[in-house]
Amino acid sequence: MLDANPREFTAPVTAPSAEGPRLTAFLARHLPIFVLLGTLTAQLLLLSFQITRNHDVRLIRVWAVAILDPFERSLGKLVDNTTRAWRTYQELWQAHQQNQELHLQLVATRTELQQVSERAGEVERLRTLLEFKSRFPYQTVAAEVIAASPGEGSNAVFIDKGTDYGLAADLAVITPSGIVGKTIAVFPHTAQVLLITDSASGVGCLLEKSRIQGILKGSSHNLCQLQYVMNEEQIPVGETLITSGLDQIYPKGLPVGAVVQTGDGNIYKQIIIKPAATLNRLETVLVIPKLNAGQQQALNQPSHP
Question: Among the four 41, 91, 171, 304, which has the fewest Cβ within 10 Å?
C-alpha cells in the first residue's frame, strides 16, 4: 500500500518567532506612557511658540539658540582659525618670495661691486703705468700678460704683442715696480718672456749704495741669487739692487729687488734677492725695444756713485 503522507510531500513546519509578540506586548503595556510623553512634548512646543520673554523673543527661539550656540561658536572658531592659518601661509609665501628676490638682488649687487672694484683696480694700474711710461726716458710698448708657459714651476709668460709691434728677442720687459725678464721667442702677435726667477736668466746688477756688482740668477720660490760677490764684501740685508746695464739688455738703474739674506760660501757670498716686481701676479708690462746707437752709448757710460 502507498503511504498516504509521503515525507517528500510534507511541508516543513516553522516555529513562530517570539520577538513579535514581545514587542507588541511591550508597546501595549507602556502605551499610556508614550502617549503621555508625546502629549507633554507637543504641549511644550505649543507653549514655547506662545510664550515670549524679554524683547518679545519666543521661548522656542531661546531654546534653539541655547542648543545651537555651542556648535555655532565651535564652527566660528574653526572658520577663524582656518582663515588665520591661510593668511599666515600667504604671508610666509610672500616673505619667501621676497627673500628670494632680495637674495638675487644681493648677488647681483655684489657682482656689480666686484666688477666696479676690478675696473677701479685696472684703472689705477693703467694710470700708474702711464705715469711711469711718461717719465721713462726710453720708448716702450705696453702689453698684457695673456698666459703662462705650461709646466710645474714655470718661469715664463706670454704677452699679447709680437713682431706686429716691432718686438724681437732679448728685449727688456719691465713694470713700474721693477724688471720682469726678457723676450726669448717672438711670434707675429705674441711673445714669450723669460722671468728673472728662471735659472737660465741672467741680469747684470749692482747694489745701489755700495756699488758692488754681480750677476742675478733665478732661484726657487720666486727668489733670485746675486752671484760672483766675494766673501769679504759687507752686504747688509735690505739693500736695494738695480740694473748695471752691462748685459746690454736692461737699461741702467732700473729696480731689481732687495737683499733678504746673506751668507758666506766657498769663495763667493750666498746672497738671496727678492724681486721688486710681483712676478706671480703680472697683468700689464712694458717692453723696451732695441736701443739706438745714442741710447746704447749712454747705456755703456760708467756710472758715478
Answer: 304
